[in-house]
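Hello,

Following up on my earlier ticket. Below are the two sequence lines again, exactly as submitted.
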Amino acid sequence: MFMDGETIIKKIKQNDKSVIVEIYKSYRNEFIAFTFKNYKIDPELAKEIYQDAFLAFYRNINTGRLKKLESSVKTYLFQIGKFKLHNELKRQKRTGIPVEEQWDLRVDNPDVCRPKEEKDILMQKALVAGFKKLSEKCRQLLRLFYYEHKHHEEIMQIMDYATVDSVKTQKYKCFKKLESVIKSDYTSEDFF
Amino acid sequence: MDESLRQYEQIDNYLKGKLEGEALEAFEKRLQKDRDFAGEVEIHRKVIDGIYAAQEEEVRELIMEADDEVENPELVQKTFWGLYSYAAVITLLLGIGIYFIFFYQSKPQRLYEEYFQPYPNQITEGTRGSVSAILTALPEPQKDTIIRAMHAYENIDFYTTVALLETVDLNIKSYPELLFYLSVGQLGAGKVKHAISNFRQLKKMPDQYFSKEIDWYLALAYLRSDQPEKAKPHLQSIIQNRLPQMQEAKSILHELGE
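Thanks for your patience. The regenerated structure is below:
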């Protein structure tokens, strides 16, 4: 299977799972080995960093930020991964505590946990669950507008709406439905 | 509903960086004074983050399964032998494809790919006080644009970095630090001529923060544009001045047959 950058981008946009998995697996072990050799990073942490880098790659393609690969996929993934790695190392240096141990500390001792971060994680989980419960039409509409950055006019054509205003109104209703998921469980004070 | 819809659209536009001029000013004033409104904006931001997370959850699950396959191959072989062997063939062929692309690049371009790393973000993540201090000195709209540009930079999204930095409504050339990141972004995005021109301009500026990096990025830019002869003097200068990239410069020169 020969694939140039353009094809890879196209396949990922089409959510071709076999291509997504194969690209992910192609550089995974090499990245973990690279971080271990050069930074003596724990493989589990390296794996998480690689996952995040891959998701950023996926996001950049789907949000239209990455339209053309100027380098190989490996170079691109490694660049993101190295960036994320440097940030983690910088954070470790600042706090003096390795990232994994910071997490353990939070789990073991609720007094030192970072409540805002944990709240954010719970909120995001609730939103993801809420998003899955929306109608197919709502999910598509929100995805097109927020994730793929399509204009209202494009959405009107893709989803066969009669007017731009009806797209806007429907999008507003879908958004509010999703918003109600967190509004019912949290107050505005939770967001500061 | 009209008022609520209007506010929703306004918040959307603000978060997308589309509010400008008086509308932006009024919005930010309200944001500072009205805590409930600021809460609404934060909720809005969280919901958008949630939409992103929902889109990526499926992929996250997919790659975690892939991790299991890599870490527990025996289990996968027993259960999904057919699928697994198919995947192995795909991997092999993909590898051949990448290998094929790799050798169709010229040597200087391959060296560029091997050595190019964007300089760490010192603007929003930095420890170099006077570099990150640029942000505090800027008015809000520019500050916000630069934060978004640097966020894109960290995600190796150089097109957005360049597009955003180019829209900053100030003379970017009077901020050499921003010009530096714009140039690295241009190099990463393939706008090599622009990058070379800006790096050369930066090289002429005395006492700027990134002076030790300019030769390195200029050399990389020439490699990317397949002009190894122009890259060599910059690599030699790095070695002579014992700059941090000295070892890499030696290796590249060696590869170029020097």
